[in-house]
Structure formats: C-alpha cells, structure tokens
Specification:
about 180 residues, 14 strands, mainly beta, four-stranded antiparallel β-sheet
Length: about 180
Amino acid sequence: LTTDVVDGVGSSVGSPSVGMSTATLGFSCQTSTGTLGTASEKIRTTNGTGTATWTLTVAPTSGATTTWTTGAITYDFNDSTGSGCSDGGDADSVGGQMTIDPSGSTITPQGGCSDTGISKGASTAFVQGTTDSVTLLTAGAATQTSCYWDMTGASLSQKLPSDQDTGAYNIGMTITVTAS
C-alpha cells in the first residue's frame, strides 16, 4: 500500500508542488486558491495488498505548529479565529487558514479496475489541535485490491491575513496512505 505523486506517464515527480493564486498586499483578509493533483502531478494510491480498506490523508510535514514562510515572514495554515484571518490562541502569532476540498476531485482507476468503494473527503479546514490532517480519500470494503487510483482536482484555499507582506511563501505537506 503506497502513495506517490506521479506525472502523466506514471513516473514519480521528484519535487511536487502546488501553485497558489497570487494575492496582493491588502488591508483586508484575502483568499488564495490552488489545485492539488493535476495532469502532470497526480496523487496515485496503489494497493497491492489483500486488504481493501485504506485512508489517504494530507498534513503538514513539520507538524501542526508549522507556518507558511518566506524568509523570516510567516502566516498560519490552521488558525480558525476571525474566519481564518486573525491570530488565535495557538503557539504562533499569525493568522491564516487552509481548506482542502477533495469532494469535486476526479478519481481515475488503473485500466481494468474501478473506483467502486472509494469515497472522496469533504471540504475541511485545518484547525490546530482539532483538525491536524485532512482526509482526501477513503476506500471501503468493496474497493478492489491489486489496483491503483489517481486523484486530481482537489481544491485548495488559503485565507491570508490583512497587511501580509508579499513574498514566495512555502509550506511542506505530506500525503499518507494508511491501511484501515
């Protein structure tokens, strides 16, 4: 049971990334958007085991206290205060919140396989200490084994605090598949 990010021909992508829409310096909360899983960076889950059930999730690589960074400037991905634009009672002093919505994504099974039994996750916002990972897909008992499935088109949105400095911000995220 594995997951990977693959290109259009199924080869692993060495440094996968998601581009977010550009935001400009503003005096009010803004939202930047992006797409997780594209034709050139598909999220592939392969189940070569005899167990049909698994869950695919995404979470910050460095844990729930990490932030988006550009140099020493940061903003949060999991602060629900002020509709995600204000700093709350968490460990950092910055606002911001990311939501991932896999419900509109596309699941493409390996030839000869189906997507029967695979459920897409719901639109979910990260909230530190409450929602530290987001479920992308869940495979139930009716899911085939010895197959792979590619997911594309999960929507991302990130609330940006007002007066956020401009820059090329980055945050590391890890996609994990777990047998259940």
